[in-house]
Q: What sequence folds into this?
């Protein structure tokens, strides 16, 4: 298993951060691992809803089918995914209001036989991607 996390304080209210986070039409502008939604991003997030995403991790393309496993509008989005070679993923985005700003934390988890072979490199690569993604997300949001 490989676990990753990153956190940032964005100088905007949680509602604006949530709106950008869940605007799948602009996902590629901030998410460093995203390459495309082959069938289009989800129009509306709903518990147990699914969507497909093409990603690139450690330079390798991956197709992931995501399921929304936790959803609290404006505060929490957790998705679980099934990727290639039996890899399972979990991504959790938690928003915490902080005055006129918002702290956003992303926690990710990768499991499966293939992960154990490259857990260290995957953790480093995915953590760097999360940090870059939060930096780009911050740059898109106008307070």
A:
């Amino acid at each position: 298993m490989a676990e990753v996390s990153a956190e940032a304080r964005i100088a905007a209210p949680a509602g604006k951060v949530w709106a950008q986070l869940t605007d799948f039409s602009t996902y590629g502008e901030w998410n460093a691992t995203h390459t495309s939604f082959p069938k289009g991003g989800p129009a509306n997030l709903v518990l147990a809803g699914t969507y497909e995403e093409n990603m690139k991790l450690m330079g390798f393309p991956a197709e992931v089918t995501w399921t929304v496993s936790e959803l609290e509008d404006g505060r929490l989005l957790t998705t679980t995914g099934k990727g290639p070679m039996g890899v399972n993923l979990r991504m959790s985005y938690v928003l915490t209001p902080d005055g006129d700003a918002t702290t956003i934390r992303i926690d990710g988890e990768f499991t499966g036989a293939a992960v154990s072979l490259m857990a260290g490199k995957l953790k480093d690569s995915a953590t760097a991607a999360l940090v870059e993604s939060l930096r780009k997300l911050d740059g898109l949001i106008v307070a």
Notes: The mean pLDDT is 93. The longest strand covers residues 60-72. Strands lie at 2-10, 34-36, 50-57, 60-72, 76-82, 88-98, 101-111. The chain is about 25% helix and 45% strand.
